[in-house]
Amino acid sequence: MKNKRKRGPSFHPKYIYIFLSILCALLVVLSFKFSKQFAGFKSTVGDVVSPMQSGINRVGKFLSDKMDLLESKEKLLEENKQLKEKIDALNYDNKILANENSNLDNFRELYELDQQYPDYPKVAATVIGRDGNNWFRLFTIDKGKDDGVDVDMNVIAGDGLVGIVSEVGRHYAKVRGIIDDKSNVSAMFDSTGETCMVKGNMQSIYKGFIDITMISNSTEAKDGDSVVTSRISDKFLPGLLVGYVSNIKDESDGLSKSAQLTPVVSFDKLESVLVITTLKDSSENEDIKKYD
C-alpha cells in the first residue's frame, strides 16, 4: 500500500477572511487608542510602504500615459483616414470641374469660330483617335454620314483651317490635317490676294511651322501677313484662315519665293472640331480651266 502524505490542518477561506477582518479592525482601533505607542511602528511601516507606493504610482502613471498615447494615436489615425477620404473626394470633384471647364472652353472656342464663318453650315465633332505620332496629322472624329459629313468637307478648329475629310463611315470620319506630308492647300495672302501653295511637312511642324511654296517673285506680301484658302482651290472653301507667313525668301531658281507658315491651329492638342457640311462648288474652276 502506498503511504499517504499527512496533511496539515486546513481552514475554510471564510474563517480566514473573518479572522483578517477582525485583525484589521483591531489594528485600526489600537492605532487610534494607542497612537503614541504605535508611532514608531507606523513610521517603520511608512518607510517601507512609501517607496513601494511611489514606485506603484510611477508605474501607474507610465501605464496611464501609454494608454492615453495609444488612444490619441488611434484617434489621430481615424481622423487621418477621414481627412484622406475628404481629400480624395475633393480631388475627384476638382477633376470633374476641370474637365467641365475644359469642355466649356472648347464649346466657347467652337462657338466663336462658328461666328467667324456664319455663312457655312457646320456640325461639331469630338476627336476620338489619331494615327501616327503625337501630332494630329491624321485623326478620327465621332461624326459621319448619318450626321451629314462627307468626303472633302473642310474641318476647322481653333482660329481656322484644320484639314479635310478623307474618309467617312456612318458614325465616324477621318480627317487629314494640313500638316500631313500629303496635304496641299491652294491659298492666298489675305492682304494682297496673291496665290501660293501651303504644303504639309511633318519635319517642319516640330519647329512650329509648315511650308509655303509657289509665291510670286514679285510678291508684296510681308512677314506676319495672314494666309487664307483661295477662291481657286478645288476642295477648300474660300477665306478660311490657315496661318501667318514668315521668312519669305527667294528660291534657288530665282523665279519664285518660298516661306514658312505658322498654323493658327494647335495640332498637338486637338479635342473638338467643326465640320463645314457643304462641299466646294468647283464648277466655276472647271469653267475657267475649259476657257483656258
Kindly describe this structure.
This protein has 292 residues and is an alpha+beta fold. It contains four helices and twelve strands. It has helices at residues 13-33, 39-116, 202-205, 283-291, and strands at residues 122-131, 138-141, 154-157, 160-168, 173-177, 184-189, 195-199, 210-216, 226-229, 241-250, 256-263, 272-276. The strands form two sheets. A six-stranded antiparallel barrel has the order 1-2-5-4-3-12. A hairpin with a 5-residue loop joins strand 10 (241-250) and strand 11 (256-263). The protein is rod-shaped. Residues 287-292 have low confidence and may be disordered.
Count every helix, treating DSSP H or I runs of 4 or more residues as helices. 4
The level of helicity is 25-40%
- Strand arrangement across the biggest beta sheet: 1-2-5-4-3-12
- What overall form do the CA principal axes indicate? rod-shaped
- Computed over alpha carbons, the radius of gyration is 46 Å
Uncertain stretches: 287-292
Beta-strand percentage?
A: 25-35%
Largest sheet data: 6 strands, antiparallel, barrel
Order of helices and strands: HHEEEEEEEHEEEEEH
What assembly state would you assign to the polypeptide chains in this entry?
single chain
Average residue-wise pLDDT: 81
Counting DSSP E segments of at least 2 residues, the number of strands comes to 12
